[in-house]
């Protein structure tokens, strides 16, 4: 591999991890807000 | 849903958009606008992501764990414990990225992905310490006992942060020294790109922390409301 390939892999790994984490946070936040709405409206 | 929740959501969305725009700008600057380094070539550009990740992990996230753990121990307020937990998770994530990007830079420059030199070894120890912190939180039951234990662990574990930082001055090392007594020891045409990347990653950290703390607060609120709803059901 040359320097550009190492750079591409590093940049890719960075955004894969951060992107996945952001996606997971977003999904969890939406699910929690929905559940909270459901509990509140049931009371 | 009340106005406060809606307003918070729009502030968070706006913050996310601003962070995304600055991150994109930083990526363009690092990949295309910064000058090509003479000796290392293109792989040197990894440094513009590697150092900001290390800054977020050690300078911000793990230091937040330290600060909010002390705040919890002093006040016994679980809100501080949740902030410390969120910061630890982000800290482990950015320490992981720091280790990976560092190894990818090292292979073409040093000829090996990994060497047991002081900066790398102390960073790996830090990673293990805070993975241990997350495991501790995961296995223990939620409450003040877990918070107290995690807070003490978080404070003691932070001792490795100054060791990581000073390791390149304390021991013989092959790790580059970017920070000298007179500031950044790099050319001005590279320094502004580094400063932009540091600012972008700092904004990203704050955004992730706010988002993660909000999730932990909502989880706690939901558990409370569900317990209340169950009690009301039993009473009826």
Description:
By secondary structure, chain A is mostly helical. Chain A contains 1 helix and no strands. Chain A has one domain. Chain A is 93% helix and 0% strand. Chain A is rod-shaped. The mean pLDDT of chain B is 90. Chain B is mainly alpha-helical. Chain B has one domain. The two termini of chain B are 26 Å apart. In chain B, 80% of the residues lie in helices and 2% in strands. Chain B is built from 7 helices and 2 strands, in the order H-H-H-H-H-H-E-E-H. In chain B, helix 1 runs antiparallel to helix 7, helix 2 crosses helix 7 and helix 3 packs antiparallel against helix 7. Classes of the chains: A mainly alpha (43), B mainly alpha (236). The interface between A and B is medium-sized, with 28 and 37 residues.
Number of domains of chain A: 1
**What is the domain tally of chain B?**
1
Mean pLDDT of chain A: 90
User: Based on the structure, what is the oligomeric state of the protein chains?
Assistant: heterodimer
Please provide a brief summary of the model.
With 43 residues, chain A is mainly α.
Features:
heterodimer; A: 43 residues; mainly alpha; 1 helix; B: 236 residues; two-stranded antiparallel sheet; 7 helices; globular
């Amino acid at each position: 591999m040359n320097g550009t390939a190492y750079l591409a892999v590093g940049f890719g790994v960075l955004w894969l991890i951060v992107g996945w984490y952001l996606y997971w946070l977003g999904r969890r936040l939406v699910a929690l807000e929905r559940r909270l709405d459901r509990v509140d409206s049931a009371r | 849903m009340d106005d406060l929740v809606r307003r918070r959501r729009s502030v968070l969305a706006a913050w996310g958009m601003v962070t995304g725009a600055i991150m994109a700008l930083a990526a363009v600057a690092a990949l295309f606008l910064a000058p090509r380094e003479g000796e290392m070539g293109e792989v040197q550009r990894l440094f513009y992501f590697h150092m900001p990740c290390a800054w977020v992990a050690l300078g911000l996230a793990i230091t937040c764990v330290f600060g909010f753990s002390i705040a919890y121990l002093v006040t016994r307020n679980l809100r501080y414990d949740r902030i410390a937990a969120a910061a630890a998770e982000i800290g482990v994530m950015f320490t992981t990225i720091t280790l990976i990007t560092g190894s990818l830079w090292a292979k073409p420059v040093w000829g090996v992905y990994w060497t047991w030199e002081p900066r790398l070894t102390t960073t790996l120890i830090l990673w293990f310490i805070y993975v241990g912190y997350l495991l501790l939180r995961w296995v223990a039951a939620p409450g003040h006992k877990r918070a107290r234990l995690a807070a003490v662990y978080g404070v003691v574990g932070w001792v490795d942060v100054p060791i990581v930082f000073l390791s390149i001055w304390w021991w013989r090392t092959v790790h580059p020294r970017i920070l000298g007594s007179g500031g950044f020891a790099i050319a001005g045409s590279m320094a502004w790109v580094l400063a932009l990347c540091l600012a972008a990653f700092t904004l990203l950290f704050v955004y992730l922390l706010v988002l993660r703390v909000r999730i932990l607060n909502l989880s706690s609120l939901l558990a409370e409301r569900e317990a209340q709803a169950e009690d009301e059901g039993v009473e009826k």
